[in-house]
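Section handout, structural biology tutorial.
Before the tutorial, make sure you can parse a SMILES string by hand: atoms, branches in parentheses, ring closures as digits. In the record below the ligand is zinc ion, and the chain has 168 residues. In the tutorial you will relate the predicted structure tokens back to the input. Do not try to memorize them.
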Amino acid sequence: MGRLEGLAVVRSRIHGYGIVAQRRFAAGEVICFGDGVLWEDDEEFDDTYALILHSGDVRTGEAPDPRPQRDLFWDLADQTRWLNHSCDPNSVVEAKWVPSQHTVDAWWTARRDIEIGEEITYDYAFSAAVAEPCYCGAASCRGVIVDPEDIDKLPDDLRRRLTIKRAG
Ligand SMILES: [Zn+2]
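Predicted structure of the complex:
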């Protein structure tokens, strides 16, 4: 696989490996597209680096719209698997179901201007079932990697780590 243009894999200050910008990205600019492999909920696979697409959130650009009714797991199979979480991320991931190819298209867009050397991050927004402690270091860190809408469902041990009380 080729290297993602304008991006490099490095040791991250946040966790493990990370991806840093080797050029500037303007707010709204697409940073990269991911490559991945599709799995379904009831299959045995390693979901460590999978994007989880909830059935209600999956967009499709094609009509008619036979989007899957189940959650999809798109295992990132390129450098995008090293993108770290931040509670104050500089990018956002978007994904689209592509019926004709029976797969997912996913891409990361800059939420603000990104300078050379900055680590690219996005909000993993885990569901409560897979939430984990967060060490992203952002001033607005929630203390837990979790979708703010799912905070009320967190188990007690994670709820105690929260630095915010609830969604909104
Ligand atoms: Zn955080």
